[in-house]
Amino acid sequence: MKLGIIGKPQSGKTTVFNAASGHQEAVGDFSQSQHRAVIKVPDKRVDVLAQLLSPERAIYAEIEFLDAPGFTGKGKDSHAPEISRDLRLMDALMPVIDCFSPASSPQKDIRDLLDEMILADQVIVENNIDKKSRKIQLTGDKAGAKELELLEKCRTVLDGGNLLIDTDFIDSERKILRGYTFLTLKPLLFVLNIDENSISRAEECKSEVAQYLAPGKRDVAAMCGKIEMELVALDCDERKMFMDDLGIESPAVEKVIQKSYSLLGVISFITVAGPEVRAWTIPKGTAAQKAAGVVHTDMERGFIRAEVVKFDDYVKYETHAALKAAGKARLEGKEYVVQDGDVIQFRFNV
Ligand SMILES: Nc1nc2c(ncn2[C@@H]2O[C@H](COP(=O)(O)OP(=O)(O)OP(=O)(O)O)[C@@H](O)[C@H]2O)c(=O)[nH]1
Ligand SMILES: [Mg+2]
C-alpha cells in the first residue's frame, strides 16, 4: 500500500512523515524536499505466530509513505501544481492540514488543497481531450470516441469543483480511468496537525471538518505531528509513559494504518510456509485463488485448495497436528472469500 503525504507548504508534511516512518528528516527548513520510506505494518498476529512457530523469518506487510511537495496552498489562484509522477502512483493521499499555527484556517486550507487537486486533474483531462479528439478526427477511432465521452464527463465534474471520487462510474469506466492516475480519484485521509496544547480537543477539531468527509472515500485523523515525531524516537517503555501523560491512546502511525486499511477496503491474511511467517494485504472480498496469486502466480495458476485456520484457533491449539485433530484446519475451494486474519496454506500443482 502506498500513501502520499500532501499539503500546503509548512503544514507539517515532513513532520508527519517522520512521525509515521521514524525517519529524522529536517523539518521547518522550507526546503519542500521529497522523502520516501517503507515501514513494516505492526501486526500482533505475525508476532504471535512467529513466537509459536519459531520460523527463520517473520515478514510483515509494508506501507510506503511519500512526503510529496508541490502544492502551493493558493487554491484556485494557483497555477497547476507541480505534481510528482510518484504521487500519482499512490493508492491514497494524506493531506496534512495545519491546525497548529496561530493563523491556521483548516477549512480554507482543505478547500484550497482540493481545488489544487482538481486543477491538476483538469490539466490532464484537457490535454487528453485535445489529443483524443484530434486522433478521432484523423482515424475515426470508435473506442477512442467512448473514452473521449468519459473524459468529457470527468471535465464536467471537475469544472463543477467536484472530485472524481464522488462521481459514479461503472467498472469499465473505472478501468479506463485508472490509466490516468487522477489525484481526485484517490481516497483521502485528512491529517489534522494540531497544536501540542490541543490534543484533548482532537475530537472537536475533527468535527469542524466533518463537512468534507464522505463514508468510504474520506476519513480524518487528528494528531500533533511534532509530538508524534518525538515519540517515535523513544524506546517502547518511555513512549508508553509519555503517551499516558499526554492522553494519546495509540501512536499516530497506528491510527493512520488502521484508517487507511479501512479507507482502501483492504485486509490481511497470513501464510505459514516452511521457514516463513508472512502477512499479505488484499482487497476485502478477494477469493482464495486470487489471494494465492498475491503470494505467487504459480499458486494461483495451479490452485487446488486453501487450508484455512482462524488465527485464534492457532493460538488455542498451537500445533498443526492439534489443529487438524480438532477439525480447525478447513479445506476451502477457490471461491472461498478470504477473511482478515486467516492463516492460510495454499495447495497447488504446476
Ligand atoms: N507547534 C507545532 N509545530 C509544528 C507541528 N507540526 C509541524 N510544526 C512546525 O511547522 C514547521 C513546518 O514543518 P514541516 O514538517 O517542515 O512542514 P512541511 O509541510 O514539510 O514544509 P515544506 O516541505 O517546506 O512545505 C516546522 O517548524 C515544524 O516544527 C505541530 O504539530 N505543532
Ligand atoms: Mg517538508
Q: Can you walk me through this structure?
A:
The chain is of the alpha/beta class and 350 residues long. 42% of the residues lie in helices and 21% in strands. The strands form two sheets. Strands 2-4-1-5-6-7 form a six-stranded mixed β-sheet, sandwiched between helices. The protein has a six-stranded mixed β-sheet with strand order 3-9-8-12-10-11, sandwiched between helices. A hairpin with a 2-residue loop joins strand 8 and strand 9 (276-283). Helix 1 (13-21) runs parallel beside helix 8 and helix 4 runs antiparallel to helix 5. The mean pLDDT is 93. The protein binds guanosine-5'-triphosphate and magnesium ion. Guanosine-5'-triphosphate (GTP) binds next to helix 1 and helix 8.
What's the structural blueprint in terms of helices and strands?
Elements: E1 2-6, H1 13-21, E2 35-40, H2 44-53, E3 57-59, E4 62-67, H3 85-88, E5 92-99, H4 106-139, H5 142-159, H6 171-178, E6 188-194, H7 202-208, E7 218-223, H8 225-232, H9 236-246, H10 252-264, E8 266-273, E9 276-283, H11 288-295, H12 297-301, E10 303-310, H13 311-317, H14 320-325, E11 330-332, E12 342-348
Parallel strand pairs: 1-4, 1-5, 3-9, 5-6, 6-7, 8-12
Antiparallel strand pairs: 2-4, 8-9, 10-11, 10-12
